[in-house]
């Protein structure tokens, strides 16, 4: 356990982004961000294992020297489009380190990098989402035909080091699993101590995923407005990862309305951005924070959704919240 420095304010661990796609961003930029933990919800498990095993400490000098060499996400092809594969350009682009963390620029030390957890590949039926998406990296989805395939895939993800299993249930983009196969995946994952996170998209899919045993929805429901009864059932059984800022117009309004009522009903809301879905910052996302506040998730509830890591962990990112200021966007990075 490391000792904590004396400072005017509250020292907390780096924040958690519960929904990222590291193969679709410059993952090295996590160093120097305010994120202490990221959870990848769909990628090649062999690649993600290498990310999870990367050194947790990096030189601030080398980070500054690298600044500006990789270009913004807008300049790279193959990024993960919005959920319905719209080609609209997001106004929010990856900010430079100097914009993200001005407090760290005056000195040359070391910075801790966020820890990486992952689900491995999307498990999806043959022809299911995201098997037809150009942004999906090789090995980032596994097509499951039956219970035997499910057993093999869950075992492979678990053996690779996955901390949860990702199931695609997107009826707007192709076939979804039969109930029996979905339940089998949940049971197999549970036997390995792994919760199931479901991408539930399309009419009735959020309720179906919860009924079949998913622990978490990868996206707050956005394709339909849930009834009050459905909200109560969801609040009692699953958590939601927010991902509100990836949406526009009607989808955004529905998602925020659902989250507002889900949160009011006592549901667990987790901060997550779907990092890599368009030009998202590899850091805390102000647009996601703003959307959560619009949905009524603020103050202590917002910090809880951000799930800071333990600042006394020797490998943990440490942040300073200025005295009397609980706004996570004002958190400053502390060096090693």
Automatic annotation (TrEMBL):
Residue numbers spanned by region Disordered: 63-110
Biased composition (Basic and acidic residues): 63-98
Superkingdom per UniProt: Bacteria
The protein, known as: Imidazolonepropionase
